[in-house]
Amino acid sequence: LWERLLSSDHRTTDPNEADFFYVPTLGRPAVGGFSGSVGRYQSPRLKEPHHRARHQWQYWEDVISYISNTYPFWNRNGGADHIFVMMGDHGACESPRGVGIPSMLQPAILLSHWGYTSDNRHLAKADWPYYEMGPCYRPHHDILIPPPQQHSLGHSPFFNQHLRNQVNLPGDPPSTNRSATFSFAGRDSWGASKYSNNVRSKIFALYKDTPGTFIRARDSLSRMAESVFCLAPSGLAFGDRLYLAVAYGCIPVIIQDNVTQAWEDDLPMQEFAIRVPEAKIPNLMEILESVTPEQRSAKLAALRCIWPRFMWSSVYGASGAESGHDDAFDTLMLALRNRRDFPNMAPPSSGRTA
User: Fold this and answer.
1) Does position 233 have pLDDT exceeding 60, yes or no?
2) How far apart are the first and last CA of the chain?
3) Of all helices (H) and strands (E), which one includes residue 341?
4) What pTM was computed for the model?
5) Which stretches does DSSP call E strand in the chain?
C-alpha cells in the first residue's frame, strides 16, 4: 500500500494541499514476538499476548507523540485526517483487552481487515473468541480493506477471462449450472471450541454429509469454482472466504453477525452477496435454494463488475490489471474521497446483521 501511494497520482509533495496523511507505521510486526520487531518493543516475553498488547499501546503512544511534536499537521485537525494501517487479526482491537480502539488513535482513520462492531469489553474470557473486545471498527469513519490474496487464482473464471481479453481469446462468464449448491473448505475449530464463534463447527455438524454440498477441513479452491454459493464465516478474527468467493465467481454467503466486510460501507454488497444470521444456520439450505435463477444471474453479473475491487492488482503484475483501474487501491481512493466529500453520509444498506 505504501509503495502504491508513493507512485500514485493521488500523492502530493505539498502537505498544505493534502486531504489526508498516511502514516507508514509497522504496527503489529514492530512489537516483540513477531519477526521484524524493533528496539524497545523487542523482548522474549512479548510472545505472551498480554505483554505484547501493552507494548503495542506504548508503540502507538510513541508514534503519535513523534508525529504531533515533529509536524504541525496532526494538531491542525486533531489527527482526523491521518491514516493508519492495522493489519493484525483483530485489527484496531490489538491493544490491551477491554480497551477497544486505543484512545490516541480515536481521531484517525484506521484501515484494517476486521470489522467487528459490537462492544464486548464486559465479557469474560469464557466467552472467547471475542471477549473483552470491540468495537474494532467505526462505520463510515474507518475503512475496511481486503487482504492481499495469497491463493492461486488459477481456477478463477474472472481472472482467466481477464487474461483471455488481454490476448483477445474468447471465454465464457461463470456458469450458474454448478455441481454444488454451496461449499466451505477450511478448519472447523483450530483446536478451540468457540473458533469462528462456533459458526464453522455448526456448518460441519449440520452439512458435512449433505448432498449438494462440499464441506471439508482442507482448502479446495477448485471446489469453490464448482459451487453456486460459498460460505464465508470468520476465522480467529477476519477471514478471507468472502474475497476468495468473489474471485472464483461464487456468490458469497456471509455468516458473521456484527462484522462489517471490506467495502461494505461503500459498495451495495446485497447485490452480489447474501447475509445469513448465525441463528439461521440450520435453515441454510432452504434459504439458498429459495434464491431464484434470475437472482443468481443478477448477483453473478454484479460479481463480474466488482471482482477487481477486492484484488490488489500490484500483487499479480501486468497479468492482474496492473493499471490499477477499479482494483482495491482505486477503491480505497474512492472510499477516502467519500469520507472527505460526504462526512455525514450514511453507508448503503447491506442487510448486515445488527
Assistant:
1) yes
2) 31
3) helix 328-341
4) 0.84
5) 21-22, 82-86, 109-112, 115-116, 143-144, 180-185, 213-216, 227-233, 251-255, 259-260, 274-275
